[in-house]
Amino acid sequence: MGEKTKKKRTVYQYSARNALCRGNWITRLSLVVFGLGCLVRGQIIKGCLFLLSEAAIIFYMVRTGFHNLSMLITLGELEQQKVWNEAKSVYEYVDGDRSLNILLYGIVTAAVLIAFVLIAVQSVKQAYKLQEKKEQGKHVPTFREDLGNLLNNNLHLTLLSFPVIGILAFTILPLIFMICMAFTNYSVEGNKLVLFDWVGLENFKRIVNFGGTLGQTFWAVLRWTLIWAVVATFTNYILGMLLALLINWKETRLKKMWRFFFVLTVAVPHFVTLLVIQQMLQPEGAVNVLLRNWGIIGASESLPFFTNTLWARVTVIIINVWVGVPYGLLQMTGILQNIPEEQYEAARIDGASSFVIFRKITLPYMLFVTTPYLITTFTGNVNNFNVIFLTSGGLPRALGSTAGDTDLLVTWLYKLTIDNKYYNVGAVIGIMTFLVLSVVSLLTFRLSASNRNEEEFR
Fold first, then answer.
1. How much is the pTM?
2. Helix axes 99-135 and 44-60, enclosed angle (nearest 10)
3. Of 254, 367, 368, 429, which has the highest C-beta tally within 10 A?
4. Is the dihedral of CA 216, 218, 223, 228 positive or negative?
5. What is the structure's pLDDT at 91?
6. What distances in angstroms separate CA 344 from CA 240, 338, 367, one per listed residue?
């Protein structure tokens, strides 16, 4: 506890605020001339690295950065022009502004500015730290010693730096780019695929408007997505639990064989299974052909697996059970084997029946342990692209609609962007999906026993 308190005091002691308030003129000037404190106090290599980073960012900003930020205001105004070339006797096209590139470069430039501020803060903090060491007569570490420290005391920072940089570059920046796109009119409507403008909250208004076509589609798809996610999650969970209980039952023989059969279905790639099932359920697929041959349906009839709304929704839920229950089985099997046997023995001695033991011991324990698993499964089902897209394809779909009756938000988003080029609306759908998942996941976890009664099962 004392070591943690000491580290916290060190962090606050060498904060940027203390550096600017208590540091000398060299320390304060390090906020403007990066690395000055390091250079003056003997850390030449580190000081040069600070200075080079400052020079590189200033060069970038002067050369193109400030222009990129200025273009963010309008996202470009110059359209592609057609110019007559007298020498060649042809029209030549002069490229105009491209709003998508302007938005991307503007976001990258903003990220560079944030990096510039962070480096400035580190420069002044490092200068103040060296000032304190000099005043107290302590040893000023060399660059080699600092590198060695990154592999020893600060190894956690070294190991975390690469994943953090990757998340910032490949997750956070694209996410910001998508969010910004939601506030533009970047879509095929009005031919705004090359040059588009900021429209504020207009896209969000269209989405939540019950009276508009887009709004009606959104609420219908959202309703089905939530129904699908709840049903798909709990069918897999309950059936997986029942199968695990049945296989782990003392009277069940060949337990390893039964587990192997279910694990085998996990080994087969999902997309292969889904595509095979999709072909089997077609009007001329194996299922309908067999039913005709057996005389169950007429020679020209077919079961409407993907042509009737109710049939299609029930079908995709059953398909999801087929591919999802084995995962639930494996999860529940591991949890069942970790329940203390002493609790079961004590309950049997007290005369509890099998049902009471399940209700009082097994089920509460499993619900407590698997609540985070349920939340992640629910999230996965909301974004379950493969089961819907590779089987029903969102069908059936009304004429003129951009979404089918089995489309989820994620498959509708795909169709809006890839098929119909409504990129702005697709970005809004992505944001709304994130908000729905965040609210449901946080509320569920906060109200669950896993969060409120953590000490009960310790």
1. 0.84
2. 160
3. 429
4. positive
5. 72
6. 21, 12, 17
Q: What SS3 state is found at 184?
A: strand
| Look-up of token digits 């269209």 | 206
Q: How many CB atoms lie within 10 A of CB 403?
A: 22
Backbone angles phi, psi at 198, to 5 degrees: -75, 135
Q: Residue 2: is its pLDDT beyond 50?
A: no
Phi-psi category of 23—alpha, beta or left, where left has phi over 0 and alpha has psi -120 to 50? Answer: beta
Crossing angle of helices 286-293/270-280, nearest 10°?
Answer: 40
**Mean pLDDT throughout 84-99?**
78
Q: Which residue has 């005391």 as its token pair? A: 153
Q: What angle do CA 64, 67, 69 make, to 5 degrees?
A: 110
Task: Quote the pLDDT of residue 103.
Answer: 96
| Beta-carbon contacts of residue 77 (< 8 Å; ≥ 6 apart) | 97, 195
| pLDDT score of 456 | 55
- The chain-wide mean pLDDT, for the chain, equals 89
Q: Which phi-psi region, left, alpha or beta, contains residue 293 (left: φ > 0; alpha: ψ -120 to 50)?
A: alpha
Token reading at 379: 């999230």
CB 288 within 8 A of CB 302: yes
* 50 three-class SS: helix
* Band of residue 369 on the pLDDT scale cut at 50, 70, 90: confident
Nearest to 29 by CA among 9, 53, 47, 10: 47
Sign of CA dihedral 112, 113, 115, 120: positive
Query: Lowest mean pLDDT: which of 37-46, 262-271, 393-402?
Result: 262-271
**Is-contact 239 325, C-beta < 8 A?**
yes
Q: Which conformational region is residue 305 in: left (phi greater than 0), alpha (psi within -120 to 50 degrees), or beta?
A: alpha
DSSP alpha helices (H): ranges in 337-404? Answer: 341-349, 354-357, 363-382, 385-387
SS3 content of the chain, % helix, strand, coil (to 5): 70, 5, 25
Per residue in 297-315, pLDDT tens?
Answer: 998 899 999 999 999 999 9
Query: Helix or strand or coil: residue 115?
Result: helix
At 451, give phi and psi (nearest 5°). Answer: -100, -40
Structure-derived torsion over alpha carbons of residues 165, 168, 169, 175, reported in degrees to the nearest 10: 170
Tokens representing 416 are 């809006």
* Distance separating alpha carbons of residues 405 and 224, to the nearest angstrom: 8
- In terms of residues, how long is the chain? 458
